[in-house]
Design brief:
Elements: E1 2-8, E2 18-25, E3 29-38, H1 40-62, H2 69-93, E4 101-102, E5 104-110, E6 113-119, E7 123-128, E8 131-134, H3 141-147, H4 153-156, E9 178-183, E10 188-193, H5 195-198, H6 203-210, H7 218-228, E11 235-241
Antiparallel strand pairs: 1-11, 2-3, 3-4, 3-5, 5-6, 6-9, 7-8, 7-10, 10-11
Length: 242
């Protein structure tokens, strides 16, 4: 597994409320977590940084090579739930942080299988040659409208309420987490990102920027592309190449 990552505040925001962490575990196992904070400048920064810290610590301390697949899913679930409690408790105890929260997308990749957990609108994609597949489904008001047939996916891309999410770490006492289990083939790339990438870079542009296989440049290229296309939000990209 080859991992590259980059975060950037973009061209419009005054600060970067995204946070991420990546690493490797025994047995050539890769992991990553990406968060996009919300709730004001201070609150967003604190929520995303705290969530990444808690989730990272849980993954690195609890993982072992003998874990079954179901145990990896449980590990991601418990890590995100622990982060939810810590972010929620901090927001509840400090009036200046009330309402803060963060999206999350986290992955553990073992034996060419990616175990993905997410809440919010940070995404995971698989890129293979000239094709791209979005693995996660946004937890957002606009996605709900698409699911109900009220608007098309194309209309959703420019909807004025596109940024309203329906799930986030730290907003409520409990959090619902979605899981995906995906087999990675040779020469496929897993991309985790915040909406600062997905809202400003098309699927075709993502494919074009990484199809040459020079994995060490993937994250940097995608961040530059988002900024070239307006850079209207914080941008975080993690690329895991198989």
């Amino acid at each position: 597994m080859k991992i590259v990552a980059k975060t950037d505040k973009g061209l419009v925001r005054s600060s970067n409320q995204d946070a991420y962490a990546v690493g490797e575990l025994p047995g050539e196992v890769a992991w990553a977590v990406v968060c996009d904070g919300m709730g004001g400048e201070a609150g967003g920064n604190i929520a995303s940084a705290l969530a990444v810290k808690v989730i990272s610590e849980k993954i690195t301390s609890a993982y072992n090579e003998k874990m079954r697949d179901a145990s990896i899913k449980n590990l991601l679930d418990s890590a995100i739930c622990a982060a939810n409690i810590e972010v929620y408790d901090m927001a509840y105890s400090r009036p200046d942080l009330q309402g803060m929260g963060t999206t999350v997308v986290a992955v553990i990749v073992r034996d060419k299988t990616a175990f993905i957990a997410h809440a919010g609108d940070s995404r995971a994609y698989i890129v293979s040659g000239e094709t791209i597949q979005q693995i996660t489904t946004d937890h957002s008001l606009v996605q709900n409208m698409v699911d109900r047939g009220e608007i098309t996916a194309e209309q959703a891309q420019h909807h004025p309420k596109k940024n309203l999410i329906t799930r986030a770490v730290g907003v409520e006492k409990r959090i619902d987490i979605d899981f995906s289990e995906i087999d990675l083939n040779d020469n496929e790339t897993l991309i985790l990102c915040t909406d600062g990438l997905s809202n400003f870079v098309t699927n075709k542009e993502m494919i074009d920027d990484i199809k040459d296989g020079q994995y060490y440049a993937f994250a940097d290229r995608l961040v530059k592309r988002a900024n070239k296309n307006g850079g209207g939000d914080n941008i975080t990209v993690v690329a895991i190449a198989n």
